[in-house]
Amino acid sequence: MPFCNVGTYQNDVDAANNNGIQIFYRTYGCGPVKVLLIIGLAGTHDSWGPQIKGLAGTVTPNDDESLRTNIMAKDAIAVMDHLGWVKAHVFGHSMGAMIACKLAALAPDRVSSLALLNVTGGGYECIPKLDCQTLAIAIRFLRAKTPEQRAAVDLDTHYSKEYLEEYVGLKTRRTILYKEYVKNISATGLQSSYGFEGQKNACWTHKMSRKELDSICAAGFPILVIHGRHDIIARLCHAKRLTEKLYPSARMVELQGGHLVSHERTKEVNDSLLELIKESESAITLNDWTNLPKKSTGCKATGISFCKAEYERRSCFSFMVDIVKKLRTFLLYFFGLFDLAFEHIRGALRNIKLVRVEPILR
């Protein structure tokens, strides 16, 4: 979160008196008119919410980390512009699938079809499968300092155990792939901590709003979601949930494999991608494309419609979110007043002079 070091912009006397105070701030919008909002007693920046929306047209702060996948998606669009591509079939894997999803929401008219491999919805869905095996892999990943250590842990992260134990001639795939990984990592070097943290934060803060998903569905292009059943990084259940949200535009394909199912099941993945391209260029309807059970919720090729139950569910969720926000504001206000009262009482007690009473002897 952004902070201003107050002393940096004050004279020596004022800077010495502020005891290194840092002030939290946020900016909204990007217009030429600047407005400084100062909140009152025990309030927070959220208290200005209605005015921020009215003045800036948005309540999403400019420093919101969820904008990172937006930035990456715009970078991808810039590459298309550089190449002179008006439209393209957009395929993404893992974090790349999150970026592809954002791209499709930002510029649906530039997408001929969308393929999402080993994808999740971001945020808490980035939490991997929680078991002893995954925990051990995570610890090894954090401790990996050499190409050899990183290669060993990457194999267990990327592929299913069954695939690595298969023999190719006299050697297992693990042995063959390990040498390739060590060679490639040694050539390029380990990823910088700064780059890894940036990508990790982009995944953690990535989210697709209902409005964005609706705009993707309304565009009318087919979507293919491919996932490995043994993926310990991006869990299959989250990919299924995203696919259902994209009904009837999406088709779900589950394959035996891990996070790099595109390497484990190359032929099946390539055949599915080629079919996606072929069908997107034909006159196939989305109802014929999807392999999901027919349902009344979701988005339609001719527009957006939701059943009453779905509307009520979302209304209930929005109500609960609003209640939580208001409760948070109330607690901040309450404890702010409590802290203020406590400081006032403590200050008053400091000023009380204790008087010693001598006993009177008769």
From TrEMBL:
InterPro entries per UniProt: AB_hydrolase, AB_hydrolase_1, AB_hydrolase_fold
GO MF term (any one): hydrolase activity
Pfam families: Abhydrolase_1
Residues covered by the AB hydrolase-1 domain: 60-265
Lineage top rank: taxon: Eukaryota
Protein name per UniProt: Alpha/beta-Hydrolases superfamily protein
